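debug: dumping io for the single-chain case to check the tokenizer round-trip. Nothing else runs in this session.
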Amino acid sequence: MAAQGDIEAADREFAVRMENLRRVAAQWIERPIAPEVEVLSALVAAIDQIGTLCIEARRASIRSIAESRLVAEQQRETLAQDTIAIRSHLRDGIEAVHTLRTINEKLVEKKLLAITADMTKGLRGAIESQATAMTRRYNLQTAFRILGYSSIVLIAGFALGRMP
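debug: decoded output
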């Protein structure tokens, strides 16, 4: 793209050429030949109007490009800020996930401990009742053995005491 100084120089050159064209046309018009005067006047006016429109279009184009660059730079800055914010939110989300995972693991451990405690309570009761039943059985077996041995000794003593 041409520099701003080059564009202004081209605009000045166009203005100088238009002045030369007007001067030459004015000199020629002084010698009136009616159809040529009207054509030449219309031609000079059309060229001047087209040149003015071109200059204004180029200036508008340059302003538009400058505004577009400004908007693009603002959008880049906004995008960079949004990217930073999104990354920050993602980091916060990842930390939250890790925290929730830790909390979940602790809750699972607590639940397992509670279930294990409930199971051991039930098992403890069953083991205690089984131990009590086995103790009673052992005590009864011991008592019956003693009674059986005592009966044998008593019968043997009775039988031996009656012997001649």
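debug: round-trip ok. The radius of gyration is 58 Å.
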